[in-house]
Structure prediction request, 358 residues.
Amino acid sequence: MSVVKRSNSKFWYIQFQFDGETYIKSSKTTNKKIAERMEIELKSKVHAEKFLGKKERIKFAAAFAMYKQSKKGIASYRNLVAHETVLTRLLPTNKYIDDLNSRDLELFKRDRMAEGAGPEIIKYGFLVIRGTLKHAKKLGFSVCDLDYPQIKMPKSSLRYLNQAEEAQLLVELDPKREGQGLPEFSMRSDELKRAMQDAYDLVVLLLDTGARYSEIANIEWHRINLSDSTINLWRSKVENETTLYMTDRVYSILSRRAKDQSTKHVFNNKTGDSRGYCTQSIRKALKRAGLENCRVHTLRHTLASRLIQNGMSVYEVRDILGHNDIKTTMRYAHLEQKQVTLKAREVINQINQSNIRA
Prediction:
């Protein structure tokens, strides 16, 4: 490594020779490890400019605007818009993206922590930055390779619904339920009836497919095949496709909804467009049902947990959930291990019984 200290500065300096030229640059950090990562990034950039040809440059603010525009109409768009002010405040968005370095990211992490942001929120910020750079690279702009800071996530038990909790949730989502603030069913507007039915149907589909919310909430009818009871699910987050077979209750719901098919989406908003990210009614139902530590994503965990508890392997469940990386599915591995130990107990009991009879 070629990071050095100078007597007249507290910062580490990057210094190296490449193709007969000498490069010297202050890292503006007292952290040697960060300075060493910056050196790697600078060398990579110099090499690219010398031998791979110089690409067009773009500033982070402009690159983010393009990335945000590419997500318009997708559930994550609203989150990007909400996060824009954070990036503008804490990142040097006037920098060219190939000038971003590890120090910028370390400072972003430090400042977000100082503001009280939790690990998941900070991690999402880095996902946005990574997504912006990936999109810019796809468009042919010059992009640097960054070493992203590690975010220590708090350990928590996996939350999923048991059968009784699911039943209670569906009671609270019943389109014909009576409750405080609800008019009698016969007095309800068509829009209220539609909204309540949509929330119920959507939750059942999420429970039985294990799909991400946006994958089902915004699905189009051309992906539904009632003749062979399949759903051709496009997963925009990981850019892959899965064919899922409908359960009986999913088939029943989609058959009913198909009779009144008037738009290209299975679920619509008030104006007839795709439903988008609208989870308030589901979150309120979870609260009414007394289900603590639950969110919409808990429905996805529920299917995965049930499949493994009933004999499917994590590798099979990975295909159902559409994970690109098996590491993501491994969060359910302890459930698989529990099933293995149960089988082991049965084997040992059978052996012991045989020995007694002998």
Q: What stands out?
A: The longest strand covers residues 12-18.
